[in-house]
Design brief:
By secondary structure, this protein is α/β, with parallel strands linked by helices. The chain has a single domain, classed as 3-Layer(aba) Sandwich (Rossmann fold), CATH 3.40.50. The protein is 26% helix and 31% strand. The chain has 6 helices and 13 strands. The strands form 3 sheets. Strands 2-1-3-4-13-12-11-8 form an 8-stranded mixed sheet, sandwiched between helices. It starts with a strand and ends with a helix.
Length: 201
């Protein structure tokens, strides 16, 4: 059973549909007890960093997220769900993230000819041996929608990068924690393979 955390801030339906298409049993829930019983957990996220942290607190979901990570169950953050795993974001000064991983979320710098937010397809440079990308061709294209990007403190945790105005840490892996800045559920066959890899962990 894969639980998708519902805290009124996520792109839930398309993630749920993609996982069900792959043959997984999926539950979308904001109930900490239900989430705690799942075999794997996904934290999606769309919106502003501060608003989403407020909602996680309002729904009393911070503890179950931290407990899930500590338990060793596979955990996947998607888009803002990746950003929330880190310590802070320039988008919401003074708001603390979950702090599960070390690093900062920074605004994508302006560059002539490039729009912010970054919306569209970009190719990834994948680190050899990254579990989420097993069986995926080199330099695959995936779909991004974001104005802020991750600069992870520990380069060893970075599983994939992309370039858009600057070097973006597009995916991370540490032990049982996985996260993608891009949207695998909107990234065609490559995205389905990433979700399938997670489901099979």
């Amino acid at each position: 059973m894969i639980a998708i955390i519902d805290y009124d801030a996520g792109n839930l339906k398309s993630v749920e549909k993609a996982l069900m298409y792959l043959g997984n049993e999926v539950i979308v829930s904001s109930d900490a007890d239900v989430i705690a019983k799942a075999d794997k957990v996904i934290l999606p996220g769309v919106g502003a960093f501060g608003d989403c942290m407020d909602k996680l607190n309002q729904f009393n979901l911070v503890d179950v997220i931290k407990d899930t990570v500590k338990s060793g169950k596979p955990f996947l953050g998607i888009c803002l769900g990746l950003q929330l795993l880190f310590e802070e974001s320039e988008e919401s000064e003074g708001v603390k993230g979950l702090g599960i991983l070390k690093g900062k979320i920074i605004r994508i710098p302006k560059k002539e000819g490039l729009k912010v937010p970054h919306m569209g397809w970009n190719n990834l440079d994948i680190k050899e041996g990254a579990s989420l990308f097993k069986g995926i061709e080199k330099s695959p294209y995936v779909y991004f929608v974001h104005s802020y990007y991750l600069k992870a403190e520990n380069e060893a945790e970075v599983a994939a990068t992309t370039n858009y105005s600057t070097l973006i840490h597009a995916s991370v892996e540490k032990d049982n924690i996985f996260a993608c800045q891009f949207h695998p559920e909107k990234s065609g066959d490559v995205g389905l393979k990433i979700l399938d890899n997670f489901a099979k962990l």
